[in-house]
Amino acid sequence: MSAPALSLPHGDGHDHAHGHDDGHGHHGHVTLQYQPGLPLSRGKLIMWLFLSTEIMFFAALLGSYVVLRFGSPVWPLPHHVHLSEPIGAFNTFVLICSSVTIVLALEAARADKAPQAKLWMLLTLLLGTLFLGVKAYEYSAKFSHGIYPWSPRSRVFEKPDLYYGSAVRARLGEPAIIDKLKELDDTPADKLTSEQVAARGRLQQIRKMVTNPDQQPFDLAVIADQVMPLPSAGSHGHSSGLNDAFPWLRLPAVIPGGNMWASTYFLLTGFHAIHVGVGLLVFAILLGYRLDHARAGMIENAGLYWHFVDLVWIFLFPLLYLF
Amino acid sequence: MGNRLAGIFWSLLFLAVPVLGVATFVVGPLYDIWLPKDVSVHGRSIDSLFYFILVLTGVVFVVTEVLLFWFLWKYDAARPNPVAAFIHGSHTLEVVWTIIPAATLLFLSIYQMNTWADVKMRRPRIPPTVEVVARQFEWRLRYPGRDGELGTPDDLFLVNDLHVPVDEEVLVQLKSMDVLHSFFLPNLRIKQDAVPGMKTPVWFKATEVGQYDIVCAELCGWGHYKMKGRITVDTREDYERWLEEIEARQEATQPEPVAEVAGQ
Amino acid sequence: MSTVHSPSTGTTVSPTDHGHAVAVGGRAPRSSRQVAEFLSTYVFSKDHKVIGLQFLFSTLLWFLIGGLLALAVRWQIAWPWSQVPVLGKLFAQEGGQMAPEFYTMLFTMHATVMIFLVIIPILAGAFGNFLIPLMIGADDMAFPTLNMLSYWFMWPAFLCFGASFFVEGGAASGGWTSYPPLSTNVAASPGSGMGQTLWLLGLTFVGVSSMLGSVNYMTTIILMRAPGMTMFRLPMTIWAMFITAVLQAFALPVLTAAGFMQLSDRMLGTGFFNPEGNVVNNLLTSTGGGHPILWQHLFWFYSHPAVYIMILPAMGMVSDILTVFARKPLFGYRPMVYSIAGIAGLGFIVWGHHMFVSGMNPALGITFMVSTMMIALPSAVKTFNWLGTLWGGKIQFTTAMLFAVSFVSMFIIGGLSGIFMAATPVDIFIHDTYFIVAHFHYVLFAGTAMGVWAGIYYWFPKMFGRLMNEFWGKVHFFLTFVFLNGTFFTMHILGAVGFPRRLADAYHYETFHHLQPLNAFMTWCAIGMVATQIIFAVNFVWSMFYGPVAGRNPWNANTLEWTAPSPPGHGNFDFQPIVHRGPYEYSVPGCEKDHLMQTDPPDARAAALASAH
Ligand code: HEA
Ligand code: HEA
Ligand code: CUA
Ligand SMILES: [Cu+2]
């Protein structure tokens, strides 16, 4: 072990190193000097360490997703659950752009161009917000098809069984729905699109079937197909079902594997969205400062975090939308 | 520094650890506090592994603890003119005491694999003798009946009363209806968790006629402690007779209420 | 926290001087400014020493609670369904007798309290906080505010776990492992209601606290070492704390994620851990498609590394204490460092040994068995090096030393029983029996807790400026040592019978009906063990105020904390510490003192001798 090549003012400190305590003469405290092990600032190091804990957090979530997905006998195709690749891809693009703008903000701040840095920062904030907006839109599209992460209120069924039949009957029996249906029946045909007119006819048939106790056994699978047809693997066209024709209808739908899909989808994207939200909060706070050279460290750390959030999405997008 | 008596007292206290430790393992069996009687084929190899590890770790235990005692005894600062050795370590020793345990443990790992494979991996190619469905807080049993096939109308249903023929390979199909349970047969050295949503095969060969406990060994709620069953190992004839008896009893009391829940 | 005290009479530290952080008169604060000052000094202090002591006091109180819960557990096992003294009245149960669901709650909360509110926070929170800056020569942690938060995040956890005893259905009762579907289905057991939710929330807060602490510790150790303090001059305590922090940082987020998934299964009705069409207590669980075993993987992916989180710091502290009282250099410093790292690394790939009979693929069991066996190697290196450290020493039987030596002695027992369980076929029989209970109490209580006591007796003078009473310390040690072996060693043979754990009453089984007398013996020992702690508590509190005043370095130890005043003031050091050598230069031949402190100037003669080795 080599002695340190450091010569620092020793003061009279060594007097103390001998196990006795004379206890006087050293007022205030000395500013200590250190031997850093890495050429990093404390803030940056702790940010890296924090991000590595985050990596493990998302690794656990992604790992669970992989286990659950490949352990499931069925898994819905993106179209079954109204996932749209173009929207997802767009959002990916938005997030990547925001990663670029935060770097530009950092560059500007380093060059002491505070107004410019603020502009880039604002743009990053806007892009992040846009991402969350698109996410919100996607969520609402799921909700409108009865896909929720939580089950008691979920309208997703694994198979068209008795439980499904009674759920359809229950939905059609809700007072609010009965009113709406009456209204629909009374709407003159010319106020509806031709598709809606056809859908109304099918809906009336289904109502007759499920509500009439004397009705011969009927095929719940057919009803399920009317409510929300599942496109086959090849077909990209999304043939519209009753729920698409009348969004307020929200009849229970049959999506094999849909519940597990919803659980994992909302888990992964939800935690990612929370992280995006935290990032936006940080940006908003930073915007309150003058983003000059002195703040470059802060911006850099915020940027590191933001790149990480971006990176997580880069994993999520193909896993959730493409495979 | 300090007095010598203190050193003697404390080092002897540490000597008591290996002495009483070994004594416990000697006295325990005398009071029947030891491995319960083993009545299975797997049990024999599991027990012999247990003894093997017991001896191995016992030797390590005694040697290390006696060394500890000896160093405390010998290098007490209260002895006259103590001198502490100024030693920072020894590469040779370091290597030796890494390699010897490494070799021992590697041997142990390989040595036991066969037993593990016998108990958990080499499933006998026979139809299930019985289906055991665990449920809060009982063991529901389902025998295939005459046709030897589970899931047919002639299945026999029972609760907590498992019978198996002696000296024959038995294949249990283990399921759970609600939460985790664990199918524990102390005398047959069998333990397997019952996991809802999974069918787990369990197999054994009992070697001795008699009645033994079935214990639930995985926490399953407030009644976990009382989830008790019986396993009766019968001779082939007794087993057949018992099956017939059950069959007759079940016919008399059709429809069997248990059937609806256990039969899925 | 007003008990924090410094030697104010006959003291060697002048009160205007280094006193502000820890030293205080016992006067009650009067004006609001004083209140504010009091709050910022003792309650919301950012000083690592105060935070460390806050952790210490909180965890010791929880230790007491955990110990009392253990007694209640033991009572039921020894004399099932008999009247429970005190507790029976407190929880007003039929005729003072324990309900079986109450029993499940007891051991669940016993383990939860002991692990999450005692051992983990006392090691990393109390000792880590107090010692890291002092032993590396820093004035505080890298991020004092974060440090303060890491303590205050424990409070929501304290409240969640504490409150859960009083909610409907009682506290969590799914075992500390919280296996679903028992824990996710409200219908499955009384404690699976609100109690389980609070348990999960509490766990999350402990997780946040540990995460904040661990990143801070790592940053501090990497960036704030005194000049000359190279990584390989760090005392073992700091190495252990560092690697523990790494373990925390990488393992804990997985449990946090799993905790959120279980929480969402419970509150939102997702089905991560629920299989399809599961019926619990005649209720169909709403969503399915998940795997109960997935939780076990995620849980043990954290909780196996966590068992090393719960012992590595104790190993580090014990290594240091052994060298001080053997007056000898640590035997094999670098191998000791590498073996800690090895244990930590291997610790990540052995989690499956808790799941040999869980229904996991048996082929996986084999790989986990091999990796588990291999973890005994770094442990062997440590054990033999401790023995090597004692060999040829000049051993002083102080209380701290006795606890440290007993750590080694007991860890050997706990470790060796691990070999039985690592052997998959043997584990089939002993899994979930008292053999396992024996194993983990040997490593956790007989190991870590004894190490913690060694640490308390050893660093007490640095914390409070006074020494603890040695005589009563030894009485405390002797009785604890005897009773703990009486309680836990016997569990091995109990486990050999197959006596299952977590059973409120196993005597109705023919196989186990004859074991009651042995259990009664163990319970008497446990009662003795807990009663013995009164000696400790009194000694601790009394010595804080009236113990003999300790100088800076009462043990003639080498590490940096002993160059600071006792207790150290704000900023820790009243001079710039500069490190010239490793921490274990004891009994250097030809040197007139028997120890060379890390800061002692590199006197030519001593330096020559030191580098000769
Ligand atoms: C501090 C805590 C701690 C520590 C350090 C350990 C250390 C070890 N543990 Fe332990 N363990 C627990 C805490 C701990 N454990 C807990 C809490 C549980 C139960 C959880 C629950 O279910 O509730 C558990 C359960 C547990 C199981 C699961 C049992 C079951 O449920 O069926 C297994 C199985 O392999 C195991 C193995 C080991 C091994 C091999 C080690 C090794 O690291 C030990 C290595 C040490 C030595 C071996 C001794 C020293 C070495 C020598 C003297 C050298 C020579 C030795 C030989 C050649 C053999 N442990
Ligand atoms: C760190 C962990 C730890 C510790 C220290 C202990 C300590 C003890 N444990 Fe615990 N135990 C566990 C972790 C621990 N346990 C775990 C993980 C389980 C498994 C639970 C499960 O199955 O889910 C378990 C389960 C368990 C069982 C099995 C229950 C069952 O399966 O049915 C039993 C039974 O005997 C038991 C007993 C004891 C006893 C008698 C002690 C004694 O050693 C307690 C002694 C207590 C003290 C000595 C208190 C001292 C107090 C102070 C020092 C305070 C001083 C105060 C001031 C200065 C203010 N424990
Ligand atoms: Cu069933 Cu425990
Ligand atoms: Cu483990």
Ranges of chain B where pLDDT stays below 50 over 5 or more residues in a row are 259-264
Largest sheet descriptor of chain B: 5 strands, mixed
Spatial sequence of strands, sheet with the most strands of chain A: 1-2
Estimate the helix proportion of chain B, in percent: 40-55%
Shape of chain A: elongated
The share of residues in helices of chain A is 55-70%
Strand content of chain A: under 5%
CATH architecture of the largest domain in chain B: Sandwich
Span between termini of chain B: 76 Å
Protein model, in words:
Helices cover 61% and strands 1% of the residues of chain A. Chain A is an all-alpha fold and 323 residues long. In chain A, strands 1-2 form a two-stranded parallel sheet. Chain A is elongated and about 90 Å long. Chain B is an alpha+beta fold and 264 residues long. Chain B has two domains: 4-79; 130-254, Cupredoxins -  blue copper proteins (Immunoglobulin-like, Sandwich), CATH 2.60.40. In chain B, 44% of the residues lie in helices and 22% in strands. Mean pLDDT of chain B is 91; it is low at 259-264. Chain C has 613 residues and is mainly alpha-helical. Chain C has 19 helices and two strands. In chain C, helix 2 (48-78) runs parallel beside helix 5 (144-152), helix 2 (48-78) packs antiparallel against helix 18 and helix 7 packs antiparallel against helix 8 (236-267). The chains are: A mainly alpha (323), B alpha+beta (264), C mainly alpha (613). Chains A and C meet through helix 1 and helix 9 of A and helix 7, helix 8 and helix 9 of C. Copper (II) ion binds next to helix 9 of chain C. Copper (II) ion is lined by residues 304, 307, 353-354 of chain C.
